[in-house]
């Protein structure tokens, strides 16, 4: 394709994208395609000669689109939302066009400095105190990996990268069973080992860590000659929004000099609303915090905000400065690749700049507040249904329930069948989780174009389809 043809196609794509977003609500939310259908529709061998873009675009519509699950659908209530708000999509289009690599200051000064500024805007938006610095990572998983590597190096007096782990005293990391699987993987990849991820019991309605049990576990590890290295807390766990008591757990961690990381990947966005900040009271004492603007806040994937009280610990863990990467002659600059595992980095700050300016914090807060309000309304209505049992109460806009008609032998099986039937129907999309070993159906509202009507019709769809199951 010649660049002289690009603008025409760009307009076609922009028109298509606008139309898609305006009509996506008419499509079934979850893809209704069979496994292998898309693979079989794609030629087994690549073309030897150029093909017509018209045909490529037609095939995109005919082959790809039927196999898409619509995350931008207003009735996407599964997992967590992954919003691509219009201004952030435009910013991504521009980034795709200029395609800079943002590993060093000099490889893209504007991207680096905008990243610094946007992370500080987000810090203020979340009500975090002055002094937290930030970096945009590709995902919360990567931010957590970086934090766990920092825990490891700090506990080994910065010798792990050099000497490796053989012969070292086992390092111990503490978390509950409610944390995301990205924590387990960070523990594996860092070489710390699953058996050194110590699961602390939970208590209370928020399913949060018991700080006394945490202290007991640390003491017992010390007595056994092991090395407590880090604490990982969650605010808004993926299953049902589990939230650890931050202040009490951080106080224990401080007493034993542990490095602390807080995973608020989903719920962190809600902290732009002061009324939700009580959920993470004490957060200012954390060493590392991650949240995903690419979930609820509206920034197109990928965009994960990683705040650090003292970035030196992270940079000491991850920075490699070979000669060819040195930036000569510029003092006081940041090379963000020293703050993250990958070297190459996309220009992710631009979409935050577009997004925050286009909506203002007030516009973003209004959306999140509505999601929470409507979700609570739906919860209240479902709670009155005689055959529906609320399993976990709303944490922000997330709650879980199960269909429990009297005398059903296997409720897990019935609820799996219900979720599948709902998703085959296509008007809404829900997913299940396990709570205390038993299946529960999750509901979360968070898609940017969701309306109160979209949320409340969920009641009708659930009860109608539940009624058809034997
Ligand atoms: C989504 C989520 C993650 C993983 O986020 P990625 O950016 O996909 O790595 C981690 N923790 C929690 C609590 C999440 O909700």
UniProtKB/TrEMBL annotation:
GO MF entry, a single one: carboxy-lyase activity
GO biological process, one term: amino acid metabolic process
Keyword terms: Decarboxylase, Lyase, Pyridoxal phosphate
A Pfam match: Pyridoxal_deC
Domain of life (superkingdom): Bacteria
Residues bearing the modification N6-(pyridoxal phosphate)lysine: 295
InterPro entries named among the record's database cross-references: Aromatic_deC (IPR010977), PyrdxlP-dep_de-COase (IPR002129), PyrdxlP-dep_Trfase (IPR015424), PyrdxlP-dep_Trfase_major (IPR015421), PyrdxlP-dep_Trfase_small (IPR015422)
Required co-factors: pyridoxal 5'-phosphate
CC terms in the record's Gene Ontology section: cytoplasm
Family, similarity comment: Belongs to the group II decarboxylase family.
Name the UniProt record assigns to this protein: Pyridoxal-dependent decarboxylase
Species annotation: Pseudodonghicola xiamenensis
């Amino acid at each position: 394709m010649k660049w002289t043809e690009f603008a025409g196609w760009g307009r076609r794509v922009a028109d298509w994208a606008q139309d898609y977003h305006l009509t996506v609500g008419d499509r079934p939310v979850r893809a209704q395609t069979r496994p292998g259908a898309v693979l079989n529709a794609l030629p087994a061998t690549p073309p030897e000669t150029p093909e017509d873009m018209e045909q490529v675009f037609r095939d995109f519509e005919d082959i790809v689109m039927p196999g898409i699950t619509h995350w931008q659908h207003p009735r996407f209530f599964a997992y967590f939302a992954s919003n691509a708000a219009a201004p952030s999509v435009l910013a991504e289009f521009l980034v795709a066009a200029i395609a800079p690599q943002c590993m060093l200051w000099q490889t893209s000064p504007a991207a680096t400095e905008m990243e610094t500024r946007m992370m500080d805007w987000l810090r203020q938006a979340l009500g975090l105190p002055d002094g937290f610095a930030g970096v945009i990572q590709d995902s919360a998983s990567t931010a957590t990996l970086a934090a766990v590597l920092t825990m490891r190096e700090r506990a080994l007096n910065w010798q792990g990268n050099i000497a490796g782990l053989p012969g070292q005293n086992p390092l111990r990391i503490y978390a509950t069973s409610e944390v995301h699987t990205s924590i387990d993987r960070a523990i594996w990849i860092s070489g710390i080992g699953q058996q050194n991820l110590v699961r602390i019991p939970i208590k209370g309605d928020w399913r949060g860590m018991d700080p006394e049990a945490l202290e007991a576990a640390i003491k017992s590890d010390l007595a056994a000659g092991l090395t407590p290295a880090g604490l990982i807390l969650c605010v808004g766990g993926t299953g049902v929004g589990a939230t650890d008591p931050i202040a009490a757990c951080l106080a224990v961690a401080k007493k034993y000099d542990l490095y602390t990381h807080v995973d608020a990947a989903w719920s962190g966005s809600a902290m732009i609303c002061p009324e939700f900040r009580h959920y993470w009271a004490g957060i200012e004492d954390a060493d590392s915090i991650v949240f995903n603007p690419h979930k609820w806040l509206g920034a197109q994937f990928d965009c994960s905000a990683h705040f650090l009280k003292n970035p030196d610990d992270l940079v000491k863990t991850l920075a490699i400065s070979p000669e060819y990467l040195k930036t000569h002659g510029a003092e006081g600059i940041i090379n963000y690749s020293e703050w993250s595992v990958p070297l190459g980095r996309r220009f992710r700050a631009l979409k935050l700049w577009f997004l925050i300016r286009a909506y203002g914090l007030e516009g973003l807060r209004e959306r999140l507040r509505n999601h929470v309000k409507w979700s609570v309304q739906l919860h209240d209505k479902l709670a009155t249904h005689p055959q529906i049992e609320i399993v976990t109460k709303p944490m922000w806009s997330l709650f879980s329930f199960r269909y429990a008609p009297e005398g059903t032998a296997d409720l897990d099986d019935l609820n799996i069948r219900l979720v599948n039937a709902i998703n085959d129907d296509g008007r809404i999309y829900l997913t299940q989780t396990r709570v205390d070993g038993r299946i529960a159906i999750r509901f979360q509202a968070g898609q940017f174009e969701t309306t109160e009507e979209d949320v409340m019709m969920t009641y009708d769809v659930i009860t109608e389809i539940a009624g058809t199951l034997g």
